[in-house]
Design brief:
With 314 residues, the protein is α/β, with parallel strands linked by helices. The chain has helices at 16-19, 34-44, 61-71, 85-97, 152-171, 177-195, 202-214, 220-229, 235-250, 255-265, 276-284, 287-290, 299-311; strands at 9-12, 26-29, 49-52, 79-83, 102-106, 118-123, 126-131, 139-142. The strands form two sheets. Strands 1-8-5-4-2-3 form a six-stranded parallel β-sheet, with helices on one face. Strands 6-7 form a two-stranded antiparallel ribbon. The structure holds zinc ion.
Length: 314
């Protein structure tokens, strides 16, 4: 049997933010400072709500507990996560604890988090990736409005992540007919948007990618990327090289087009400070990404990939 989970309602396209109706008595959770959140809230046209804007970036279970203890007694009608991954993750977990519906509104794009059943929170200072059907949004609102004012570099890294997730997801052994349909369409939309300079379509492509890979997995490219993340390289930037060499190694049908997209976006070569063999050992422990890779991966394969990344042999 195959199954996929997607939010009950997905609002997307021009002015999705303003045209969505928000229930009275909502609790809006965000990391944004008041000047910014006020702008967003007025664009939403929301009235009769409470605002919690004390979420810390890279949030922990303490942020969830702060929301639950401050607002449980007030019985909000719905939780609204408005912001980047941090705000969405806190709302995913808190809504489960409070048995409340949730609306997720990503103000950054690329991860597709608003579409997935995944949630990343710190427990005892350590980041944990959790998965639960209850983390799925009841409503997700995707609007390219938020891209205005986002720094170019962040947009580049984000769209690279979305492309990597879509194409690795397509090749994942955990995929099915439907996840492949979403992943393929996602990459088509993103490829067209990048090559033909239509950045307003990035959030839509990223949303499709989230539905696709969120119901299967990413693979070798993401496994390779974490040794660069450990050295402080932004996630999307590390995937520009990691996913390219992974596609070359896997003989993925996306290799040439993925490379084209990376060239068009223009990324610098990656440096790796760690010893290649040590880094390969770290990559080999990442069964979550390596097991669903379309072909089996040995430590020698990983070393070859890392050497290619270091020398820019993509
Ligand atoms: Zn990613």
């Amino acid at each position: 049997m195959n199954s996929i989970l997607i939010p009950k309602s997905i609002k997307f396209g021009t002015d999705a933010l303003g045209q969505t109706e928000y229930p009275k008595g909502a609790l809006v959770v965000t990391t944004a400072p008041p000047a910014l959140s006020e702008k967003w809230l007025s664009r939403m046209g929301i009235s009769d709500y409470e605002l919690f804007d004390k979420v810390t970036p890279e949030p922990s279970i303490d942020d969830v507990n702060a929301v639950v203890s401050a607002y449980s007694a007030k019985k909000p009608s719905v939780l609204i996560g408005l912001g980047g991954g941090s705000s969405l993750d806190v709302v995913k977990y808190a809504s489960k604890e409070m048995s409340l519906p949730k609306i997720l509104i990503p103000t950054t794009f690329g991860t597709g988090a608003e579409m997935t059943t995944y949630c990343v929170l710190k427990f005892d200072g350590k980041k944990k990736l959790l998965r639960d059907d209850a983390f799925l949004a009841d409503t997700a609102v995707i609007d390219s409005y938020f891209m205005d004012g986002t720094p170019e570099q962040i947009i580049k890294n984000s769209v690279c992540d979305a492309c990597a997730q879509a194409t690795e997801g397509f090749d994942s052994k955990l995929g099915n007919e439907l996840t492949r349909m979403f992943c393929e369409k996602a990459f088509d939309v993103l490829y067209d948007a990048i090559i033909n300079d239509k950045p307003e379509n990035y959030p839509y492509g990223s949303m499709l990618s989230g539905i696709g890979f969120g119901n299967c997995s990413t693979t070798l490219g993401h496994a390779l990327s974490y040794v660069f993340s450990n050295e402080g390289v932004p996630h999307g930037y590390s995937l520009s090289s990691c996913t390219t060499v992974a596609h070359k190694h896997n003989k993925s049908k996306f290799y040439a087009k993925f490379k084209e997209v990376i060239d068009k976006l223009g990324f610098d070569k990656l440096e790796l400070k760690a010893d290649v063999s040590d880094a390969a050992d770290t990559v080999m422990t990442d069964k979550g990404h390596l097991d669903p890779n379309p072909i089996p991966i040995s430590k020698d394969d990983v070393i070859k990939c890392l050497e290619d990344i270091k020398s820019g042999n993509l």
